[in-house]
């Protein structure tokens, strides 16, 4: 893993102006470990609005708005496309056609609204304690990026494109380093297990997305990566909040 690979990961996962070079992209797609490593930085940045003196709902709204300003809407667009595809009756080929369709349907709207509102509600639950919120947001972001790395290492692309350039470079054995890189996020709330609960829950939800994509679509593409990232983040954060408040 090189700094070029990490630069490529930041450039791919966020709108931070690190520059988009072919060298950085090639280094990144050969280094899935950079997904969770970038998650630490992204999570820390996303949590910054929690430290602004504001009512908890306002802080949560700022976190969600800042999240999408920082990371862009590419990944949530993938979630929207998946939402439309999954409500289609018919063959996997027909659903794949919907993934590529730019028309926004009811499935996309409902999926995005539920996801964004659910994410905001999770942030409200930790906004009263910014230090706890910071740790849980980082754990959730690392979990989401570990989920993406998992799809890169075990997924099969359904067509040529961005997903194929990522999955073609890695295999199941390459998942060891991303998993190891995510370990600090599991102990970020030590001795409380909330960090570990968040990371595991997010990863499991990404695997559910993978199984659904494989059975309903025949494999993965860029939209599936984005959807897995968005779903895993929200699930991980809710799981972390539940663990923190109930255990």
Uncertain ranges: none
Main β-sheet: number of strands, strand sense, barrel status? none
Tell me the distance between the termini: 37 Å
Shape: globular
Query: What structural category arises from helix and sheet content?
Result: mainly alpha
Percent helix range: over 70%
Over all CA atoms, what is the radius of gyration?
Answer: 17 Å
Tell me the series of helices and strands, N- to C-terminal.
HHHHHHHHHHHHH
**Number of separate strands:** 0
Number of helices: 13
The number of distinct structural domains comes to 1
Quote the beta fraction.
Answer: under 5%
In round numbers, the mean pLDDT is 88
Write the layout of secondary structure elements.
Elements: H1 3-13, H2 22-29, H3 34-46, H4 56-71, H5 74-86, H6 92-100, H7 106-126, H8 130-154, H9 162-167, H10 176-181, H11 183-186, H12 194-216, H13 222-246
Helix pairs in contact: 1-2, 1-3, 3-8, 4-7, 5-6, 5-7, 5-13, 7-13, 8-12, 8-13, 12-13
In short:
The chain is mostly helical.
Question: What can you see in these coordinates?
Answer:
With 247 residues, this protein is an all-alpha fold. The protein contains 13 helices and no strands. The protein has helices at residues 3-13, 22-29, 34-46, 56-71, 74-86, 92-100, 106-126, 130-154, 162-167, 176-181, 183-186, 194-216, 222-246. It has one domain (3-246). It is 73% helix and 0% strand. Helix 8 runs antiparallel to helix 13.
